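Q: What residues go here?
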């Protein structure tokens, strides 16, 4: 079983932002525990007495907001980079899937609909590729709870029954699941991935993206795991 943890960065409805990102990481089921444990150790390194309330969340960590206000910028940014390094050092089967859109360039299409169709179909194609290589695996997509929950659930059901523009999702064992990010370090990691892409495309800042740029699903030099409409 491969679990694709996804989160968004940027707001689909904010006219002040150019880009919207949907991104995250696909983990083989046995890899999830190791990565979550490493992320727990990382957070414990700065608050060993009570690490649980410290949620790895890109925007507050970058800007020093909410609970992260008490930590200096250098420490906050270091933690973002170290969390991404955990993924960068992990097993080669752990792969990033992402869609980055310039909202104006895909108008009148909805950024959430467009991005989810791209990411879900690319994840499904990845699982089909594994099957052709005698490694049959099913997949589940896991989201942070958000305002897009009802939209995503409806799209996923349609993609599995009616189909999307490239076919029907064949390798997902269930409709997407939604978790509270506070309870999942892996959802938090997907937030950092999405925020890293948002910083790169919205602000030209690749200090975080550069750490994970080689972890997209890729075959023959083609990044199948990255959709760009910019």
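A:
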């Amino acid at each position: 079983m491969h679990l694709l943890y996804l989160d968004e960065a940027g707001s689909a409805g904010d006219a002040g932002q150019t880009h919207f990102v949907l991104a995250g990481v696909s983990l083989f089921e046995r890899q999830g525990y190791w990565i979550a444990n490493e992320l727990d150790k990382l957070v414990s390194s700065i608050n060993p007495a009570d690490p649980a309330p410290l949620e790895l969340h890109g925007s507050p960590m970058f800007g020093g907001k909410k609970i992260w206000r008490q930590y200096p910028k250098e420490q906050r940014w270091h933690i973002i980079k170290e969390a991404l390094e955990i993924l960068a050092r992990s097993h080669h089967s752990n792969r990033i899937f992402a869609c980055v859109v310039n909202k104006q360039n895909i108008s009148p299409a909805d950024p959430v609909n467009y991005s989810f169709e791209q990411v879900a179909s690319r994840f499904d194609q990845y699982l089909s590729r594994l099957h052709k290589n005698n490694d049959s695996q099913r997949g589940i997509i896991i989201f942070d709870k958000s305002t897009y929950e009802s939209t995503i659930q409806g799209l996923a059901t349609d993609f599995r029954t009616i189909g999307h523009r490239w076919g029907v999702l064949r390798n997902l064992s269930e409709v997407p699941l939604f978790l509270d990010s506070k309870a999942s370090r892996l959802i938090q990691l997907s937030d950092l991935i999405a925020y890293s892409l948002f910083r790169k495309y919205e602000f030209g800042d690749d200090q975080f993206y550069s750490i994970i740029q080689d972890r997209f699903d890729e075959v023959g030099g083609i990044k199948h795991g990255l959709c760009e409409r910019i």
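A: Context that may help when evaluating the design: The two ends are 32 Å apart (CA to CA). The longest strand covers residues 19-28.
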